[in-house]
Amino acid sequence: MKIQRLPIQLRGDDRRVIARPFVLNAARAGSVLRRVAELDEGSVDHLLQRVRQDFGTRHRRTDSIFDEHYRMALTLTGGRDDWSLERRLLAGAYFTMEYSIDSAALFNPSIVAHPDQSNVPAGALRFVMSLRATGEGHVSSVVFRTGLITADQQVELDPAPAIFHRARVVPDRKYNKHMFRTKLREIGVQGAPVETVIEKLQDAFTMSDLTNAIDSSRSTLTSVAGSNEMLRTIHWVASSNYHINMSEEANLSELVIFPMSEDESHGIEDLRMVRFIEDDGTASYYGTYTAYNGVRALPTMMHTHNFKWIEVHSLNGPGSANKGMALFPRKIDGKFVVCSRIDGENLFISRSDSAWFWSQATRLATPRHYWELMQIGNCGSPLETEAGWLLLTHGVGPVRSYAIGAVLLDLNDPLKVIGALPEPIITPLDNERDGYVPNVVYTCGAIIHGRSLFVPYAQADKTTSMAVMDLDELLDQLKKHPG
Q: Cα–chain-centroid distance for residue 20?
């Protein structure tokens, strides 16, 4: 097949930074607050002016950031809140650090149609591409780039943002008690401690409500074996499910989804976005990813309509184990469907009434060809064509070399393989081999426009490029190699 590699090369940039909290622990925060308290007003005003001059243009609403981080330190130490605004902001500056979001790598992209197609030229398509950005300490975040696929199949990227906007957790979001209890049961957390806490909650509750219910239940559960661990798990489940939002003044390409919960503390990895058609015909966006805390990988899914307000939910059930779940772009026979790799080696298909709970999985395919004998997985959500579901796959071969292949599944029964190419469609070229992880080409999702398939892909877990190929030629090749 003819594969055209486009002259696109997305690289990390040390100059792209976000402002993060720099609150180490209560003792250190207390020491810093005491030192700031000892400064005279003249020194406070002078130092704050210097900080604003140095950093005010590098972030939006710098004063708000400083105030937020000051209050985080204050909560940690239990200190008094009777300082002047200037002293609070200066203290907040000490509890702030800049983080270069993609200084190490910018890779593992996925791509979908942009939610806003207004004023797009005839025959063109506006897209949004997610990328895994990795910086200091190999902590991964999600960033976005937007652009246009023109009527003549050219790709035009919008300029990279000069300033990033770090998404914030929405305070006091509401949890549904029935769904929360179901989540706990799915992971085997049930019994007296759970019911004691649940009985104290309204049908809709906040994290503050849950924290109070847990604290007030401790004294009545001292005689119940394992109750403390169960109470910690209850709080963990809630903190792993949250809402985030972005400022109305920020555009999508400025959004950074930085790890928000303890389970994501070491990274948000490999977001697989999909534009999903709901039962009523409207479109929303789901994205499956791996939350990693340095020890455990937690399958997670985000959901949004416009990328301004985003829900984040942990995924539950044996059908959601391991990494790399990819949601089909619509229901099949009234069920949500995902392609996954629950055993770390083979491809599986799961069906469910809920996008958040996956109780079973059926094996779809095993490694067969030389370039995938180590393991196979999906490369993002399947794409619907008149010939079937086009599923891009990745295979791991000799010397841990990754390649991208293609499979065609039946539209009505995705467990039926119509075609599977014996050779990969994208393998590392000599100039794509070297990087953070050598010999890897990888994507988390492609897009069809017109009769072309556009595949953004990472090179050696370092940079991102894009390839385009003729869709009809690919489908014809797949039909010649029945599964």
A: 18
Cβ-proximal residues to 58 (8 Å cutoff; 6+ apart), any chain: 17, 98, 163
Neighbours of 73 (CB within 10 A): 23
Contact 454, 154 (CB under 8 A): no
Q: What does the block give as tokens for 436?
A: 């953070």
What 3-state class would DSSP assign to 246? coil
Among 76, 244, 81, smallest CA distance to 165 is for 244
For the chain, the helix, strand and coil percentages under 3-state DSSP, each to the nearest 5: 25, 35, 40
43-45-47 Cα angle (round to 5): 65
pTM of the model: 0.90
Residues 150-208: pLDDT tens digits?
999 999 999 999 889 888 887 667 888 988 888 788 777 888 899 999 999 999 998 88
Which residues does 42 contact at the CB level (< 8 Å), separation at least 6? none
> Among 238, 242, 260, 259, which Cα is nearest to 311's?
242
User: For 381-420, what is each residue's pLDDT tens digit?
Assistant: 999 999 999 999 999 999 999 999 999 999 999 999 999 9
Residues β-bridged to residue 290: 269, 299
Contact of 395 with 379, CB cutoff 8 Å: no
CA–CA gap between residue 48 and residue 31 (Å, rounded):
19
Q: Which two tokens stand for residue 387?
A: 């010939």
